[in-house]
Specification:
about 25% helix; Alpha-Beta Plaits; 5 strands; five-stranded antiparallel beta sheet
C-alpha cells in the first residue's frame, strides 16, 4: 500500500499492516496442513503441528529433519501425554500418534508426510 511506502521513506524500520497479516495467516491455515501461526519474531517463519505416522519407530537423529526439510522440532507430545516436552533429545524415538510442533520457513511449508 501507498502508506507503507511512505512510512518506509520517512525512516520507519518496520511497518505492520494487520489486514495483510490476517489475510496471510488465513490463507496459510487453508493451504498448509497443520499450520498453527506465524512466529511473532519473524513473518518468514511459521509453526506447524504434525502427527507422526510414517516416522514412527525412528529417532529424530535418524530422520535428520533439519537437513532434509529445513525444520526443527521444538516440542513433542505423546498420545497419552497432557503436556508437550520441549527441545527433545535427538535419540527420542517417535511413536505413532505423537504430535510434533515444528518451526520452519513459511516458503518451505509444503506438505510433509510424517
Amino acid at each position: 500500500p501507498d502508506h507503507q511506502r511512505l512510512l518506509y521513506k520517512l525512516g520507519v524500520d518496520t511497518v505492520i499492516i494487520p489486514e495483510q497479516l490476517a489475510a496471510v495467516q488465513l490463507a496459510s491455515k487453508v493451504a498448509i496442513p497443520g499450520f498453527i501461526q506465524y512466529a511473532s519474531f519473524d513473518t518468514e517463519m511459521s509453526f506447524q503441528e504434525l502427527v507422526v505416522e510414517k516416522w514412527a519407530g525412528k529417532t529424530l537423529l535418524e530422520l535428520d529433519l533439519t537437513n532434509k526439510y529445513g525444520m526443527q522440532i521444538i516440542a513433542i507430545r505423546g498420545q497419552s501425554e497432557n503436556n508437550f516436552r520441549f527441545i527433545p533429545n535427538a535419540q527420542y524415538e517417535l511413536q505413532t500418534g505423537d504430535k510434533l510442533i515444528v518451526i520452519r520457513r513459511t516458503s518451505d511449508s509444503h506438505e510433509i508426510h510424517s
